[in-house]
């Protein structure tokens, strides 16, 4: 017999819950039953184990046995992997890893596929600069709304299903690029395509479901970094390769027909990818959410309650603001970089797109490196280390953007742009090294909120670029980044140290030997039941009644 426990071994459940909540019956069970048979019956009830474990799918049926995993896993943390093998595609952990980053890559590929073409669309359809920037803001607003929505929905439906649905819908809308006739059409089209930008929420949730927090900074950094690289690659692929190929060899110099058809290629790629990941991957190490619910190993959860729980967390909103000044900057550059180099230095569409692609291409290593440094600092200095690393990245990013706002030559602009883009992406990686600790039971909601900060920041910066010149807009951006870096000082996560105060609370797993299980109803003034998890590895169990009628001692061998 094997009984589940978590971290310190103490699992708390609030007494005041809905009648359907299995925790309602725990007190009565403890009052009336002392036998090992009853203990076994209770702990083998997957719905009850789910409730005791804080709403995570654990206990009862699962798709894979531990012996089937090719990675070392933590059996007491829902079989999450404790390591990463980059060249493995084995299910469930590494299959989900590769599916998540490549699906996100395709999402960014279609989200920004039109960006390197905007200057040509503007010229061919005589669209104003204001409408061009309004369309960019619309694509960000589409992502903003969906990020808030999809975070809680991940808890209910799992990341795999939502990823496939959103990616398919965004692909179909991207394929309609050739139907644009005026500025209004462009704005509406990009609003719909913007939902592709929300896929980063599923990527983070998927990573958190598959890997332990010891390596989550690195994993999140690699998955989202390689995925976000699609925003840079699409500048090169669409703007410098596909568009001139279509224009020169397919349509004999017709620029309008070239941009009207070129987006079909990334749209088809993303649509096929969405179908494939649905069938070849899993929501979590224990299986797909639908299967877990079918076998009663996972009850239904309320997306509304998850959203509200995340929205009440003050730390989530601090990270929301800071992420606005890291990922928000990257999104702004994905929209602005090509226009900037064409307008300021008179480059062709192909040349401007090639230079702009450098920003996103740094995601190949920069975001993962930021997450890795955050993980290493956690091992040495606890959460204080993660916060200091995160703050340094933001300060360096802000300072370099201020320098970029003042440079006047193309060579200097490219060099400084590469430098600040590195710190932009490193700060993104360090952000999501912190997120899984904020509220582990509501990670999807926290991820959605923080992720929405990126879209919010890009909208704010986009409005600055819409109304001001490039120099003034970049200066405002740099000042905002440096100001928000100071918010790290007031981030205080439960059981972890802050930048200047507090200390880490060490968690310890249950040890072999005697454990006490306190049962019975709590005193009237108490609002909580305290249940001490018992047993680590099962062999046999015996019951010993002490003088205290509410105490049972469990011995494991």
Mean pLDDT rating: 80
Helical stretch tally:
22
Write down the secondary-structure element order: EHHHEEHHHHHHHHHHHHHHHHHHHEEEE
Sheet with the most strands?
3 strands, antiparallel
- What share of residues is helical? 55-70%
The coarse overall form would be globular
Low-confidence stretches: 1-27, 32-56, 508-557
Counting DSSP E segments of at least 2 residues, the number of strands comes to: 7
Q: Give, in spatial order, the strands making up the sheet with the most strands.
A: 4-7-6
Radius of gyration: 26 Å
Alpha-beta content class: mainly alpha
Report how far apart the termini are.
11 Å
Beta percentage is 5-15%
Would you give an account of this structure?
It contains 22 helices and seven strands. It has 557 residues and is mainly alpha-helical. The strands form three sheets. Strands 4-7-6 form a three-stranded antiparallel beta sheet, with no helix packed on it. Strand 6 (541-545) and strand 7 form a beta hairpin. Helix 6 (129-157) packs antiparallel against helix 7, helix 6 (129-157) packs across helix 14 (303-311) and helix 16 (327-345) runs antiparallel to helix 17. The longest helix is centred in the middle third of the chain and has 35 residues, at 216-250. It is globular. The N and C termini lie close together (11 Å). Mean pLDDT is 80; it is low at 1-27, 32-56 and 508-557.
């Amino acid at each position: 017999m094997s009984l589940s426990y978590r971290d310190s071994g103490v699992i708390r459940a609030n007494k005041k819950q809905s009648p359907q909540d299995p925790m309602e019956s725990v007190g009565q069970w403890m009052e009336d039953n002392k036998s090992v048979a009853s203990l076994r019956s209770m702990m083998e009830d997957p719905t009850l184990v789910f409730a005791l474990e804080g709403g995570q799918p654990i206990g009862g049926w699962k798709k894979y046995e531990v012996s089937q995993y090719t990675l070392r896993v933590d059996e007491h943390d829902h079989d999450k992997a404790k390591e990463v093998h980059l060249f493995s595609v084995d299910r469930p952990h590494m299959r989900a890893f590769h599916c998540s980053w490549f699906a996100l890559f395709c999402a960014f590929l279609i989200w920004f596929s039109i960006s390197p073409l905007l200057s040509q669309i503007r010229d061919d359809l005589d669209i104003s600069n204001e409408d061009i920037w309004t369309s960019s803001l619309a694509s960000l607003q589409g992502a903003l709304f969906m990020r808030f929505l999809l975070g809680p929905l991940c808890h209910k439906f799992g990341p795999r299903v939502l990823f496939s649905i959103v990616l398919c819908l965004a692909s179909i809308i991207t394929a309609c690029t050739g139907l644009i006739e005026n500025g209004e059409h462009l704005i509406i089209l990009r609003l719909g395509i913007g939902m592709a930008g929300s896929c980063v929420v599923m990527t983070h949730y998927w990573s958190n479901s598959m890997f332990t927090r010891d390596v989550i900074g690195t994993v999140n950094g690699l998955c989202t970094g390689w995925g976000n690289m699609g925003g840079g690659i699409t500048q090169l692929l669409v703007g410098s390769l596909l568009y001139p190929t279509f224009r020169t060899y397919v349509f004999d110099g017709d620029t309008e027909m070239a941009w009207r058809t070129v987006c079909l290629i990334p749209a088809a790629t993303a649509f096929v990818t969405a179908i494939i990941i649905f069938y070849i991957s899993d929501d979590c190490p224990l299986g797909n959410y639908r299967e877990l619910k079918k076998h009663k190993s996972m009850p239904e959860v309320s997306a509304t309650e998850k959203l509200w729980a995340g929205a009440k967390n003050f730390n989530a909103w601090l990270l929301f603001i800071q992420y606005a000044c890291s990922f928000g900057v990257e999104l702004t550059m994905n929209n602005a970089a090509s226009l900037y180099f064409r307008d300021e230095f008179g480059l062709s569409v192909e040349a401007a797109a090639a230079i702009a692609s450098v920003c996103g291409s740094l995601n190949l290593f920069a975001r993962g490196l930021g997450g890795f440094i955050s993980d290493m600092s956690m091992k040495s200095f606890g959460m204080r280390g993660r916060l200091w690393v995160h703050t340094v990245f933001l300060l360096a990013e802000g300072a370099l953007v201020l320098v970029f706002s003042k440079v006047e030559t193309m060579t200097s602009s490219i060099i400084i742009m590469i430098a600040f883009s590195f710190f932009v992406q490193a700060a993104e990686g360090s952000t999501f090294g912190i997120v899984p600790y904020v509220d582990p039971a509501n990670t999807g909601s926290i991820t959605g909120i923080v992720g929405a900060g990126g879209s919010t920041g890009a909208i704010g910066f986009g409005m600055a670029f819409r109304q001001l010149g490039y120099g003034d807009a970049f200066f405002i951006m740099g000042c905002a980044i440096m100001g928000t870096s100071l918010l790290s000082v007031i981030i205080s996560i439960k059981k972890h140290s802050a930048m200047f105060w507090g200390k880490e609370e060490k968690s310890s797993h249950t040890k072999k030997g005697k454990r006490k299980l306190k049962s019975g109803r709590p005193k009237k003034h108490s609002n909580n039941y305290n249940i001490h998890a018992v047993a680590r590895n099962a062999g046999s169990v015996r019951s010993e009644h002490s003088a205290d009628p509410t105490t049972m001692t469990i011995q494991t061998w």
